[in-house]
Structures are given as C-alpha cells and as structure tokens.
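INFO  loader      accepted 1 record
INFO  loader      residues=237
INFO  predictor   begin
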Amino acid sequence: MKRLKNIHLFRLYEYIQPLINYSIPKEDNIYANKVLAIAPHQDDEAVGCAGTLIKHVKSGGHLEIVFCTNDSQERMEESKRAAEIIGSKKNHYMHFSSRNLNCNKDFKENLGFVLNSVKPEAVFVPFFFDKHNDHIAVSWAINELRKKIKLNFMIYAYSVWSPLNPNCLFDISKEWDVKRQAIECYKTQIITRDYIKIAQGLNRYWGEIKEQGMMYAEAFLKMTVKEYISLWGKVFR
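INFO  predictor   done
INFO  writer      dumping tokens
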C-alpha cells in the first residue's frame, strides 16, 4: 500500500512539474466574478483560502460557500458567522457525516446540484493530496461529475492538512486580520488545535517566500477543471 501511494506521488510531481515556476506568480484578482468555495468541513474554507475569498469580495466579486459535512448545531452556527465575515452571499449545507464523503454517490449528486445551480466561474477545492479522505472525496466527485454535467470553471486547489506545490499566490497581508476573525469563529475546533497559528505560519511562509516585506500570502495550484480532472486521471490511473 505504501509503495502504491508513492507511485501516485511520483506521478503527481511528473505531471505538475511543468506548471510550477521557481518564482510563483502573484495574482491581484481572481479573473472571475462568481466564485464557489467547497469546504468538506466547516472551517476548511477559513483556514485554507479565506484571505483570497475576502479579497475577492472586497473587489466586488460574488462568493458562495458549500459545506459538505456537519458535526453539530454549534459548529453550524460557527460556520454561519465565519461565512458572514468572509463575505459569502449564500451558504449551501449538505449535512453529511464527517469521514463519509469518499465514493458517496449521494454526496456526488448533491455537489452536482450545487454546481448546476450556482454555475461558478472559479471553484476553490482542497487539493486531492490533502491528507483527509473527505478532502480527497471532493476531487473524486468532480471527476465523476464530468460524465454527467458540463463543467466549465477554473480550479484553485488549496491545502489544509498537507503542503502544496503552488503555481499562483495572492497577497493577503491586508486581509489577514479578517481571516483570523473568521477562523476564531470556530471555537469548537481551535480548542483542540491552534488553527490560527497554523494558518498564520503557513501564510507568513508564502509571503516571505514570494518577496521580502510581504507579510501574508495564500498559495494555490490553479488550473482549468479539464486540466484538473486530467491530472486526477493520470495520477490515479
């Protein structure tokens, strides 16, 4: 099993290497209006990509968030407060149990319904090498949905649990304080793990890597949905 996982990892690096630049390009805006952020769990959106989402809303863009799982009413209320801080115009709640998304046909159908109704131009998803089955399941569902519905959007793959080899980043220095407020909403989660420190350290790292004086940045693997699905197929063939 370990050897099999290594093969997938080697394939991944083989196929994304042409996309990776030593100097990661900084983007000022998402070149789309309607953005959908997919959060397998209520807090992934805040930790993984809230700064960029806040930046998008500040520039006049439209944002909706879909939460795939729901553990408790308390966490539901936390996600509503966080989404309001981030600037989501509409939240979609699926209410699946945590660790129950992998190869779940009902989840796939629900996600397809949301994508059809929102018709996003850009979608934020956890990268499929992020080490949580529910995070991987989002990419699985998108791969499966291509057989049933027309998908036409840009993917911004983000990380929560695992490092990412990015090909674009956004300066979120001015948005960091608001992102921190969004993460702070999840009191049920930060009581067990300091997600503020985790996000701050990672965002500080990418900011400093990009250029001296950049305080915070979020990094993504950006590609068309067609390219993303092709990458999934090549890695997991």
